[in-house]
Design goal:
103 residues; mainly beta; Immunoglobulin-like; four-stranded antiparallel sheet; three-stranded antiparallel sheet
């Protein structure tokens, strides 16, 4: 299932929606060239969030098209989503994510 986040209202500010309790759903993205070791780290920052409470979705796109060789490791620090990604060296990976948290 593929999503085009540019169609969401508020994409210019990276805020997708505001929930009734005041928290927001924010969009973040990052691009990273894969190191020759087949392991790379990527950080997706959500500047509109004070902290990430929950990750709704993460999507990866690679150029050239390739497969992830292992499930990515992920951890959250403040308003940053850190990922360790395993895939073929020589590729460029783009990551998109949606997260919920306080503004």
């Amino acid at each position: 299932m593929s999503h085009d986040y540019s169609a969401y209202p508020g994409k210019d500010t990276d805020i997708v929606a505001t929930l009734r309790d005041g928290r927001i759903i924010a969009y973040g993205s990052a691009e990273q060239a894969v190191k020759p070791t087949d392991v790379t780290e990527m950080t997706i920052t959500f500047p509109d969030l004070k902290r990430i409470e929950y990750i709704i979705e993460i999507q990866f796109h690679t150029v050239p098209a390739t497969y992830l060789t292992k499930t990515p490791n992920k951890w959250i620090i403040g308003n940053e989503l850190h990922l360790t990604i395993y895939l073929a060296a020589g590729a460029t990976i783009c990551g998109d994510a949606l997260a919920i948290g306080p503004p």
